[in-house]
Amino acid sequence: MKIPLTVNGASVEVDTDPSKPLLWVLREDLSLTGTKYGCGIGACGACTVHLDGVATRSCVLPIERAAKSAITTIEGLASKDRRHPVQRAWIETQVPQCGYCQSGMIMAAAALLVQNPNPSDAEIEAAMTNLCRCGTYPRVRRAIRALANEA
Question: CA 82 to CA 75: how far, in whole Å?
Answer without folding.
Answer: 12
